[in-house]
What does this fold into?
Amino acid sequence: MDCKLRAKNCGGCPMLATEYAAQLKKKEADVRALLGKYGPVAPIRGMETPYHYRNKVISTFAPAAGGKLTSGIYAARTHKVLPVESCLLQDEVLDKVMLAVRAAANACRYQPFHEDKGTGLLRHCLLRRGVATGQVMVVLVTAQPVLPGAKNFVKALLAEAEKRGVPVTTVVQNYNPRRTSVVLGEDEKVLYGKGFILDTLCGKTYALSPRSFYQVNPVQTAVLYGLAVDAAHLTGKEVVLDAYCGIGTIGLTASDKARQVVGVEVNRDAVRDAIGNAKHNGVKNARFFAADATAWIREAADAGQKADVVFMDPPREGSTPAFIESVARMAPKRVVYVSCNPETMARDLALLTQKGYRAEGFTPVDMFPHSAHCETVCALSKLDIHQKITVDLKMDELDVTAAETKATYEEIREYVKEHTGLNVSDLYIAQVKQKCGIKERANYNKPKSENTKQLKCPPEKEKAIREALKHFKMI
It folds into this structure.
């Protein structure tokens, strides 16, 4: 199967001209070449129908003939927008919804944003579909804070969608004034519906907001997570650490088979979603924390905490030596590594192997047919299988950052700066936290010797820091 956009330098499907069986063969061979020395590589899990699998679409607006606008994707290595009517990778419902968005925008005479001139209104449109529920989210990204005639736009969009026989569950305006390639800004306004949609994956229901990280291929995600949970060998007695947890999908999938799940994710919005998803699904044995995974696990290891199983699903750049060192100190019986980049996985496995873990095997999963990317699940076990591990995660002993109650030093500094104009140091924050009875790590911001003089936090800065701690509900 071919696509006319390929001849226009689309770049979205670099392997489209290759037979799908040959694509799978190449990906499996690439994984085996990189990882085969660590353990056996199982046959790759491909898709039965490797088209129209993407449940998320991002379309960029551009000028069209007659003063109207169109939308599409950037040509490879350019900022030239190629108009898209349909795409072999995108959910076919979303193709029709995008046409409805375009028609409604033209009916309202909206103009596309011009990157160089900084003029115009509409930048991008992000669409999500809950494949299991059929719900559809439309996120209109604007360069201006006000969407003129917003009610008329929503009315026109619903009418255009009905003409095409597709649903629109919610509509959100996202304001992004920055000169950046990042699609979404920080400010949002719900124009229609609840501002989120629901989807079901591996028996759990998830609320998806505009910024939620959610795998784009639901069919293969179910395969991937099923393999990961099976690799953990859970019996219902284990404490599970889900590092880089996103909105909690792997941890919540595993929660039915574990005693306790602890998720850690640096993105605070994702953690709020994870907490909400746990409550929505009635999961009471899962807790989620907003923190850098490396810093969090290092602190947990310093406190002598341990876990039976660690799931790690890092970004494409892989994990860090400090994270892996801390995993080894926590001494889980099993580590399940889910990777979207076999090259960085191979690098991390070299260190995990040095720390006494053995790769039992690898299963590649083709999450993105017609692209070069491949996901891989690896199960690792500790070589000393006779070692007895006592598991008791005491959250109140850790200096972690709970999304509901705590903030990082950087967030406290930024809050103080924004609201008072004062610059405060980590030392001052640590001093005020200590006065407020908030435990700090041993030796954190302590002088190197008893005779070393430390600056004391001035009263006006102490007051500002206390206000920040109150804002973040830490006191």
Summary: The longest helix spans residues 20-35.
